[in-house]
């Protein structure tokens, strides 16, 4: 077990006039045993960052430290890490047992110890009855667990997860999320988990790194990221439906600033801002009201038992004062 | 195999397949049937008397030391060509596979020999290994090797082996490269993270997953060695010296076209037919069973 | 396959590949050099390793009237024969196979399976196992020493049919259904939808079949007797007289270079399609 330090990490591809910089200086410190999620939209560089920690990509600039070693020059095999891939990367011609035992066999572990470790991991992941099967005979969820089992038996210092839940259907995804949380509670191994799904990030992370176009926009706990987003990007990326960002707020406006207010922090009232209702959606336990305010689009979330305005009507809404965020219009950063 | 959509027409499909079926019947099936028929006939030298002798031609064949020698020779030849051809191209393919700058240039430069005719390949090597003026002969002689394939049967065999393998490298290389590229990169990365070095990764992960391609190429190369190499032999050694390079397909030609032994040559053809059919069946069976991961 | 960043490994890979390419290119380079030398220079032992000055002279000579000691058929004529053979076979095979494949995939008719298996069986009957009777048939049909004789017997191809069939099976049914609703009959559907979709496959097959046709040896050997009908690959061989010392190697090598030129050009120009098609065809 060990912490991870990312110091001024920069990644560039190509050279000369074809040079492309995809990560622009990331700094973060992951504590020993912490579960950190790296989250962001496609192409933001999160997988690249993870692969640099793994040693599958060269680090153009900066240092990565795992435990007390700087690992920039170390091969993946020497970094004492284990990785779970998005498409599981199970060796198709080997049985489940052999898949999990592969890394241990290479490190010349005695057969008896290998068997013990594999059986223990299989027990934790409920794979004991599948050890002799080949990957193609397993369901998606089972393959996923074998991939995790392969990582567990190695008992590494760090676990790396590269979007492991993306290939599962919604129900399985929710189930596996809980299993991963349980596993982390039991084993307590430092983990870096990459995903594009902000729900996964919010539920799994002890802290999360929010990335956008190669920049780390915020590094904080789910609460911090949700309640005090550091930029308009974080504000609109985390939370569903996304935070309303108003360029032309009718009241309390500071020039050159964007007002942010989450849909669930707006109340329908008798006085206040005038919202031109466009449409309403009933989602079961709650209702979403879509409308226009000045030049901006607004979403308001109310209880299902609350008001249900008709389209093209006008209602008054009031944001909760203590939930208003301000962002600089030019930089997008929190004021 | 099944398409949901079918057009309805009574005559159109027949019209569409007609050209192919016609050529197939006239130039494939009919001659093949005739070959089988000839193989059971005995003609005398002037083709005036024809006897139906059932399998006598075959028994004669399998008791003929020349034929058996040719059979053994062909088996040996195809094994050498297949194995060396596959190993060399596999080496090139592994080295040229991705993550290498200039991979495309290497690929282009290694592929074009596919276009060279076997006959031309034979002649190129004939020229370089000509006992009197060949440039390679000169080099060999400076190492003390007496090179003259006109008298040395083994050297003649070496000549056609080299020409045959040289020509096949591209074909094998292409398929191995494609096979390598169909192995997901994440598998190799996972193995690397598990601690396997490049050599171990190759033998425990890459090669097993490449085996369907390798098997397919093995069969193709054997068929190539049995049949397409006729041109190489005819252009270089003509089966000599003293039948040292008289592979089966060449013997059929010599006995049939040159010596006009219809029955014997037809019998040999039938034997080859059986071998090809067996190889093709094996190949298709295996390909069907190729596991999709 | 190489994840490690050891520069030594990379160096080894490049070295081996360069050596491989050198070995592969060497015979052709030697042939090229030989084709630019004079008769005496080419027979000199050891032959020089850099090109000489007789390039145009040699090539012009063989194109016009072959060699003197061996066959004197003009290579120019042979190149034309080879070209006709290669083009007719390539185009012919593609045309015949694509309509057969279309019929087999998109129609249900009695004997469909039978025809399919018949075509399949031809994979197992290369010309080498039926030489004399095929020659007999060609002779009976008066095809000896004709372009038809050179090309017709080789024009049915199981490989091409299989490739097209496999490809057609992947064309979504929706296209045919939409065509039917639009009122298109099978031939319109074939011409307007299937054919355009098959372009890549046809290009790939063209390369493979062209090379196949150009490089044919055994069959032209049997079916042509007059020098005017020889194809290039046969012509080269005939230039080599009985013994080997008296051969005009500089002319022979010039002819060899000419024999290699068109197929290699075709491969290089259409490399992308060719590679894709070759790999798909055998799967």
What does this structure look like?
Chain A is globular, with a radius of gyration of 24 Å. The longest helix of chain A has 18 residues, at 170-187. Chain A has helices spanning 46-54, 96-106, 111-124, 140-153, 170-187, 198-204, 222-227, 232-237; strands spanning 4-13, 20-30, 35-39, 61-66, 69-70, 81-84, 158-162, 190-195, 207-212, 215-220, 244-246, 257-261, 266-269, 273-282, 286-293, 296-303, 314-319, 325-328. In chain A, 38% of the residues are buried. A six-stranded mixed sheet of chain A has the order 6-7-8-3-9-10, sandwiched between helices. Among the domains of chain A are: 1-80 and 156-168 and 189-240, 3-Layer(aba) Sandwich (Rossmann fold); 248-328, OB fold (Dihydrolipoamide Acetyltransferase, E2P) (Beta Barrel). In chain A, helix 2 packs across helix 3 (111-124) and helix 3 (111-124) crosses helix 4. Chain A has eight helices and 18 strands. By secondary structure, chain B is mainly alpha-helical. Chain B has one domain: MetI-like fold, CATH 1.10.3720.10. Helix content of chain B is 72%, strand content 2%. A two-stranded antiparallel ribbon of chain B has the order 1-2. In chain B, helix 8 (185-194) packs across helix 9. Chain B is globular and about 75 Å long. Chain C is mostly helical. Chain C has a domain at 75-241 and 257-281: MetI-like (MetI-like fold), CATH 1.10.3720. In chain C, helix 13 (232-238) packs antiparallel against helix 14. The longest helix of chain C has 32 residues, at 75-106. The radius of gyration of chain C is 24 Å and the shape is globular. The interface between A and B is medium-sized, with 24 and 20 residues.
């Amino acid at each position: 077990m060990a912490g991870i330090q990312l110091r001024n990490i920069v990644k560039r591809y190509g050279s000369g006039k074809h040079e492309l910089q995809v990560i622009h200086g990331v700094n973060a410190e992951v504590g020993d045993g912490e579960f950190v999620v790296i989250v962001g939209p496609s192409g933001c560089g999160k997988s690249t960052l993870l692969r640099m920690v793994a040693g599958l990509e060269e680090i153009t600039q900066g240092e990565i430290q795992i435990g007390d070693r700087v690992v920039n020059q170390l091969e993946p095999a020497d970094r004492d890490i284990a990785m779970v891939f998005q498409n599981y990367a199970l060796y198709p011609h080997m049985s489940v047992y052999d898949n999990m035992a592969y890394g241990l066999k290479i490190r010349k572990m005695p057969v008896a110890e290998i068997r013990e470790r594999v059986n223990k991991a299989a027990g934790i992941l409920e794979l004991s009855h599948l050890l002799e099967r080949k990957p193609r005979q397993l369901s998606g969820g089972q393959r996923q667990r074998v991939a995790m089992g392969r990582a567990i038996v190695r008992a590494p210092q760090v676990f790396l997860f590269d979007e492991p839940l993306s290939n599962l259907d919604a129900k399985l995804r929710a189930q596996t999320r809980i299993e991963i949380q349980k596993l982390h509670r039991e084993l307590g191994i430092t983990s870096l988990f990459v995903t594009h799904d902000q729900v996964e990030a919010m539920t799994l992370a002890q802290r999360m790194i929010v990335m956008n176009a190669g920049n780390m926009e915020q590094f904080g706990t789910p609460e911090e990221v949700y309640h005090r987003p550091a930029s308009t990007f974080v504000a609109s990326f985390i939370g569903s439906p996304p935070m309303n960002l108003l360029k032309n707020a009718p009241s309390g406006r500071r020039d050159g600033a964007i007002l942010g207010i989450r849909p669930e922090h707006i109340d329908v009232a008798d006085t206040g801002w005038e919202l031109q209702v466009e449409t309403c959606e009933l989602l079961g336990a709650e209702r979403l009201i879509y409308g226009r305010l000045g030049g901006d689009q607004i979403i308001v979330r109310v209880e299902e038992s609350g008001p249900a305005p008709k389209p093209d009507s006008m209602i008054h809404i009031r944001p909760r004062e203590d939930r208003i965020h301000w962002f600089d219009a030019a930089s997008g950063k929190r004021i | 195999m099944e398409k949901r959509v079918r057009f309805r027409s009574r005559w159109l499909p027949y019209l569409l397949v007609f050209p192919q079926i016609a050529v197939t019947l006239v130039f494939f099936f009919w001659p093949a049937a005739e070959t089988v028929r000839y193989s059971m006939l005995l003609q005398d030298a002037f083709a005036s008397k024809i006897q139906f002798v059932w399998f006598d031609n075959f028994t004669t064949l399998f008791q003929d030391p020349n034929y058996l020698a040719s059979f053994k020779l062909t088996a040996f030849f195809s094994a050498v060509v297949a194995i060396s051809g596959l190993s060399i191209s596999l080496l090139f393919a592994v080295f040229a596979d991705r993550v290498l700058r200039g991979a495309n240039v290497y690929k282009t430069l290694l592929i074009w020999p596919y276009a060279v005719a076997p006959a031309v390949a034979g002649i190129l090597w004939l020229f370089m290994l000509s006992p009197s003026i060949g440039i390679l002969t000169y080099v060999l002689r400076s190492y003390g090797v007496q090179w003259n394939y006109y008298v040395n049967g083994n050297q003649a065999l070496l000549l056609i082996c080299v020409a045959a393998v040289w020509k096949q490298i591209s074909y094998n290389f292409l398929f191995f490269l494609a096979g390598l590229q169909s192995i997901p990169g994440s598998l190799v990365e996972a193995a690397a993270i598990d601690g396997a070095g490049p050599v171990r990764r190759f033998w425990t992960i890459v090669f097993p997953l490449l085996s369907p391609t390798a098997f397919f190429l093995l069969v193709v190369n054997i068929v190539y060695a049995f049949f397409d190499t006729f041109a190489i032999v005819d252009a270089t050694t003509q089966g000599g010296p003293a039948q040292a390079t008289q592979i089966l397909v060449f013997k059929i030609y010599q006995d049939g076209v040159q010596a006009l032994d219809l029955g014997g040559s037809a019998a040999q053809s039938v034997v080859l037919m059986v071998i090809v059919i067996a190889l093709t069946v094996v190949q298709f069976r295996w390909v069907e069973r190729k596991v999709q991961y | 396959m190489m994840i490690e960043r050891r520069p030594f490994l990379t160096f080894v890979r490049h070295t081996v590949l360069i050596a491989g390419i050198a070995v592969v290119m060497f015979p052709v380079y030697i042939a090229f050099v030989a084709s630019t030398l004079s008769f005496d220079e080419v027979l000199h032992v050891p032959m020089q390793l850099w090109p000489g000055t007789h390039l145009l002279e040699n090539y012009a000579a063989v194109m016009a009237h072959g060699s003197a000691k061996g066959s004197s058929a003009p290579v120019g004529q042979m190149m034309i024969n080879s070209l006709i053979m290669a083009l007719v076979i390539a185009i012919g095979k593609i045309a015949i196979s694509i309509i057969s494949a279309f019929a087999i995939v998109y129609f249900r008719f009695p004997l469909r399976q039978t025809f399919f298996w018949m075509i399949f069986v031809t994979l197992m009957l290369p010309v080498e196992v039926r030489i004399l009777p095929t020659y007999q048939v060609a002779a009976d049909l008066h095809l000896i020493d004709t372009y038809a004789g050179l090309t017709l017997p080789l024009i049915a191809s199981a490989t091409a049919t299989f490739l097209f069939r496999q490809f057609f099976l992947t064309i979504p049914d929706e296209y045919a259904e939409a065509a039917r609703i639009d009122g298109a009959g099978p031939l319109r559907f074939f011409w307007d939808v299937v054919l355009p979709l098959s372009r890549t496959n046809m290009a790939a097959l063209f390369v493979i079949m062209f090379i196949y046709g150009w490089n044919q040896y055994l069959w032209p050997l049997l079916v042509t007797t007059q020098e005017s009908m020889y194809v290039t690959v046969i012509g080269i061989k005939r230039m080599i007289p009985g013994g080997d010392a008296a051969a005009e190697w500089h002319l022979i090598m010039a002819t060899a270079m000419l024999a290699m030129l068109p197929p290699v050009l075709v491969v290089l120009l259409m490399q992308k399609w060719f590679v894709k098609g070759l790999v798909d065809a055998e799967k």
